[in-house]
Design brief:
The chain is of the alpha+beta class. The chain contains six helices and eight strands, in the order ββαααβββαβαββα.
């Protein structure tokens, strides 16, 4: 499959009680408050972000043809941010380009443990396969981040890599990481044609 060059946004998209939508300028300051929260950053590789860089990156999303980051809204409150980037896979010359996606998410700690991350991950996958027509999506997490492990497995992704002591954690030392993945055909076998944009 050759990536068709879709540049239109998959948002807005409703997933259960969440509304996934593009971030507004007004959302960015709120996102920054919980992105730099130490509880949120415990398992992040970048344990804090520069506010100006963060603002600039979010403002660039609307003009990108590979970055489809979004916010998740619950009852008119922004409760999480989701990341969906289009990438190339790996292969020999002639390989179709831009057929893969990478997803991630950060949830406001006030809304942790309420299913927000799982719904958001499912929405990101639905957008990747139903709107962007990607072939494969991956996500990574720290092996000690059991909440994220549960989220990715509930979303239907399979663990396909266990990196032994592959990253440094300031509190824990060298820790293991997991990579998860799912193919479009696997997603469709689970969800049928419900991946189409609503």
């Amino acid at each position: 499959m050759q990536y068709a060059g879709v540049t239109s946004s998959p948002w807005p998209l409703r997933v259960g009680s969440l509304l996934l939508r593009e971030a507004s300028v007004g959302d960015i300051e709120h996102l920054l408050t919980f992105r730099n929260d130490p509880a949120v950053n415990r398992f992040m590789l970048r344990t804090s972000v520069d506010p100006e860089t963060f603002r600039r990156e979010w403002l660039a999303v609307s003009s990108s043809d590979t970055d489809f980051s979004c916010v998740a809204e619950l009852d008119a409150n922004v409760v999480a941010m989701g990341f969906l980037d289009i990438a190339d896979g790996m292969g020999q010359p002639g390989m179709p380009r831009r057929t893969e996606g990478v997803i991630g998410y950060i949830v406001d700690p006030e809304f942790a443990g309420k299913g927000v991350a799982t719904s958001l991950a499912c929405g990101l996958l639905r957008a990747a396969f139903g709107h962007l027509d990607l072939r494969r999506v991956t996500a990574s997490c720290n092996a000690d981040n059991l909440a994220s492990v549960r989220v990715l497995e509930k979303a239907g992704m399979r663990r396909e890599q266990h990196g032994v002591e592959d990253s440094w954690h300031a509190e824990l030392g060298w820790v293991d990481g997991y990579q998860y993945a799912i193919l479009a055909r696997e997603w469709q076998a689970i969800h049928g044609r419900s991946t189409q944009r609503s």
